[in-house]
Amino acid sequence: MFEQLIQSIFQADFLFIIIRITAPILFAALAAVISEKAGVANIGLEGMMMITALFGFLFAYWTQSWIIGVLGAMFVGILLGLMMGFFSFKLKTDIILSGIAVNMLGAGGTIFLLNMFTGLRGNTGALVSPNILIPTIDIPLIDKIPILGEILSGHAILTYLAFIFVFLMRIFLYRTPLGLKIRAVGENPNAASSVGVSVIKMKYIAIAMSGALAGLGGAFMSMYYSQGWNQGMVAGRGFIALAAQAMGRGEPVGAMFSSLLFGLAQAMKTKVSGLRGMASYNYLIEMIPYVVTIVGLVFYAMSIKRKARKHQLRPIK
Amino acid sequence: MRDKRMVLFGFVRGAAAIALALAVGAIFIFLSSDEPFTALRYLLIGPFVSYHGGVTAFNTQNFYQVLAAMIPTIFTGLAVCVMFSANQFNLAAESCVLVGGFVGSLIGIYVNMTTGWHAVVCVLVASVVCGLIMLIPSVLKVKLGASEMVTSLMLNFVLLYIVLHFLNYHFADRSKGATMTFPFLESAKIPSIVPGNSKLTWGFVIAIIVSLLVWIFMYRTRWGYAIRMIGINESFSLYSGMNVGGTIILSSVIGGLLSGMGGSLEVLGRYNTFVWRELPGYGWTGVTIAILAKNNPGAVPLAAFFLAYLNKGCQLMSTHSDVPSEMIDIIQAAIFLFFAAEQFLSGFRQKLVVKTTREELMRTESLTATEGE
Questions:
Q1: Set of chain B residues whose Cβ sits within 8 Å of the Cβ of A278
Q2: What interface predicted TM-score (ipTM) does this complex get?
């Protein structure tokens, strides 16, 4: 059995699958990173991805253009972010609660909206056509290299975008004035405000960007990954992304590595469940990514605590 | 004078939030439905009023069904109240209901006991198991500082798959088409308190009693005080010598106990065998209830009643008109956002405060004036 497993893991297509599975988690993890940097805990990512996935798909279907679909998903994500911001910053609803509200909209509200717009129930399988799915591209030169080409070439455009965004995000946060302001607001709002930075404005910008990134993740899910919108599609990826952000110490590159870890766990899940004799363990295999998340969080928390002890500090609560 | 006005303001504000949420729901109904008025009628008064050939009557069965639907959500509402009071955004009540139902079912199927005690043992064991489960997120939080929110969310999925594994491969009744356990022993079932098919069981009475007990615990005992104080100001509690870590763990374990109890009472009261194959959603309803009740256990049954009524209304609406029952999520989300908004109608409150203060000032002025004479 393990021979089988090892054989199927040491193949180029396994790494290809990891990258494919990681992309939507990575978008959501970056969304968590940017909002957390401004001191805003965006627990609504799960719902945001569900809603933007639906609207991305619908926009693409109505216009028969995947680009409009992706842009539409980002737009709806920004609106959702601003809505959360309005309720939390202006009306002072706890940000966790506005997040849960968005998740509720994502869970049941999307089914209602789908029915309202199209009359369909539960999924959009009937509306899928090739020109509304996000196209894949082959990278010239690299696709000629034997194994590397198989792994890196032939992904969807958004997959590459996700990994490019990791570095853009890093540059944005650490090399631009706006990024500095956002980080300042997250670290010490009073200090930021005392030098004339508008705390509320920075928080709005951060959560709107978070929404846009969640929108990209949502569009990726419905317009590439599962080829159509369905009810259980996001399956906790928004929550996993929160864990990836925490494990990645709130940094874009760290979040990328923890997202890859979850991608690996998910990919293992599909591989292991395909093996002979493992059929009756499918549910336990299904839970691997979530267990990995908890274990990862525990290790992260332990490392923080150890570091705090080394510096003779009390752990930060 | 001032207190009275503020209490009244609280009620007006809550009512306005709910009215606004229902208005949002109505807008969506008008947008999506061809028969909006039928849909609205069923949503708003459907649960209690039935029409039979033009005759309107109070529908007793529906009323009982609404009360029956409150059983699990009162428990999750209480659980979330206790945990949120300690500022613990622990969301594992959702899966604890499932685990509680599953554990209660297993004992109800495989352990043979005398009538009377069997059901009690099922419910108690289920509660204890869920209380122990809650140690995971709370101990990780207290000892390591791992976010209880993220761990509990992940735990929901982990527990779901563990239950599904055991349900499918160890305890399934293979003679049935769908995946389910063997039927419960009669002695394990929670008996109904009313005739008919409404499933209004003794679980409802227990839920009301437990709400009272949790209220007493939260407002009349030292531990309840510690829990609330930690929620209000954790640093203050720490520096005044409270056992903050232990109290946080205590609040989570109580949350687990309550959700497990709710889950087992629901499953053993409503079904003949364990049939849940996904998370039942009562944990999230519990969050809404806790928000509506403002973390006060005494108000939980009222909030649970409101949501059960709304839910029943949505179900009736989807059966009798073309609006899907998922409408409830949109209304719930809107209630959530407006009700939890501290600054909602704050301008109005400001005016009220100014007005009250002015009146008081004038009164004291006239009082001193008369004294001066």
A1: none
A2: 0.81
Identify the closest residue of chain B to A243 by CA–CA distance.
Answer: B150
Q: Does B58 touch chain A (CB under 8 A)?
A: no
Dist. CA A84–CA B348, nearest whole Å: 23
Q: Do the Cβ atoms of B78 and B210 come closer than 8 Å?
A: yes
The counts of H helices and E strands in chain A are: 15, 0
B334: nearest Cα among A175, A198, A317, A97: A97
B245, B152, B140: which is closest to A298 by C-alpha? B140
Domain assignment present for residue B42? The answer is: no
How does DSSP classify residue A316?
P
Q: Please report, as a single letter, which amino acid is at residue B41.
A: R
Task: Report chain A residues whose CB lies below 8 A from the CB of B332.
Answer: 101, 104
Number of domains chain B contains: 1
Whole-model pTM above 0.80?
yes
The H or E element that residue A57 is part of is: helix A45-63
In a domain, B232, yes or no: yes
Closest CA to B285 of B318, B314, B251: B314
pLDDT in tens, A188-214: 888 888 888 889 999 999 999 999 999
Whether residues B150 and A107 touch (CB distance < 8 A) is answered with: no
Residue B329 belongs to some domain of the structure: no
Give dist(CA A56, CA B193) in Å, integer: 50
| Domain assignment of residue B150, given as a range | 70-320
- Find the CATH number of the domain harbouring B311: 1.10.3470
